[in-house]
């Protein structure tokens, strides 16, 4: 029987399921045996058969544009509205578990808007665990992010434990504001589960409570985060600090770094350039500084961290904003679908090694490119 995806579009509520993409029949049976759904894609007939339901769908030309990009062993969510969304790209070596946009702070420069976060739901733990099953057992890296993942409370521990079982060789990176780790038993539970190859990344926005809390708009958040870092330092996982550089803290970067040097076991410090959407664009006058100015503000801190033997990265900074001597610190940190270049970038001699700029930062007119001639 053939089902037409577009026929589902009139249904009011999307119902979706997860599936592993297969381009050849030979792996279907083994996937089914471990309880996975399979979307078997036949290029020639432009059809998809969903197993174990054995439902065959003819894909319209418009929908095929998305389907034909899929590779063998990718994982998708497949909606009865006809949309397929890839949540895992098998050849990327990395996958993200997103716990939902909900957060317990409301940072002035967050790229997510306050209303999006306020109305966001947490992703159910069972659904996150199901996603993990589609990553395969040999994936090398998993990022757990939100919103704020610790809002799952014990559920986050359950997800991490499940990731350890399902994907035993994966390095796990948790992106969190760190506040919940001020509850010592909670942090200690992560100290028991996470090992040396894993990493927790936590932002520090100011060298003191007044500045940090003004940026998070959450009173007490600085004290909670510092307390959490001290307890996590008793574990063995790597501890990363992220400093999002804005007009609100660019003069405080050196002081923040000096504070970090007093904390135990900081492994890596990454300086983050702004993504101008959500709260950041709403509060543009308060937060935006040119990337050139933001990168310059990091230089003294970079030198201090180098002297202390701490790893450093510059995230989201285009090369034209960074002094040549620091280019090796620039990281490929922007998601592929968000990377853009400006028209004048075409004349830039280093475009082929520049990691680009956020689409939002260009479309809002914030970014000024400075093509490099030599
Ligand atoms: S001008 Fe464009 S390509 Fe060149 S460094 Fe800047 S952003 Fe990158």
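-> sequence recovered:
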């Amino acid at each position: 029987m053939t089902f037409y995806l577009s026929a589902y579009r009139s249904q009011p509520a999307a119902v979706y399921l997860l599936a592993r993409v297969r381009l050849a029949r030979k792996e279907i049976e083994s996937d089914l045996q471990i309880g996975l759904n399979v979307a078997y894609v036949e290029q020639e007939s432009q059809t998809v058969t969903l197993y174990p339901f054995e439902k065959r769908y003819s894909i319209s030309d418009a929908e095929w544009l998305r389907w034909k990009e899929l590779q063998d062993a990718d994982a998708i969510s497949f909606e009865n509205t006809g949309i397929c969304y890839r949540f895992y790209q098998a050849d990327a070596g990395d996958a993200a578990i997103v716990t939902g946009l909900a957060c317990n702070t409301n940072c002035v420069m967050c790229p997510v808007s306050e209303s999006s976060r306020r109305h966001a739901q947490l992703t159910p733990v069972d659904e996150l665990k199901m996603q993990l099953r589609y990553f395969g057992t040999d994936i090398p890296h998993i990022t757990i992010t939100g919103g704020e993942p610790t809002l799952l409370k014990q559920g986050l521990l359950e997800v991490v434990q499940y990731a350890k079982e399902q994907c035993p060789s994966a390095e796990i990176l948790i992106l969190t504001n760190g506040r919940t780790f001020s509850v010592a038993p909670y942090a200690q539970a992560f100290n028991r589960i996470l090992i040396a190859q894993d990493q927790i990344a936590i932002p520090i926005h100011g060298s003191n409570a007044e500045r940090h809390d003004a940026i998070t708009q959450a009173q007490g958040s600085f004290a909670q985060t510092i307390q959490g870092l001290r307890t996590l330092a008793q574990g063995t996982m790597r501890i990363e600090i992220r400093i999002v550089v804005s007009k609100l803290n660019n003069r405080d970067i050196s002081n923040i770094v000096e504070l970090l040097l007093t904390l135990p076991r900081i492994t890596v410090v990454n300086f983050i350039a702004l993504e101008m959407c959500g709260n950041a664009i709403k509060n543009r006058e308060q937060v935006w500084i040119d990337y050139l100015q933001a990168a310059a503000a990091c230089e003294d801190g970079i030198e201090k961290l180098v002297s202390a033997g701490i790893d450093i990265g510059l995230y989201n900074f285009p090369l034209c904003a960074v002094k040549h001597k620091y280019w090796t610190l620039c990281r490929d940190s922007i998601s592929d679908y968000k990377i853009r270049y400006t028209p004048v970038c075409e004349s830039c001699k280093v475009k082929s090694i520049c990691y680009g700029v956020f689409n939002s930062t260009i479309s809002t007119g914030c970014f000024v490119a400075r093509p490099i001639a030599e």
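The mean pLDDT is 93.
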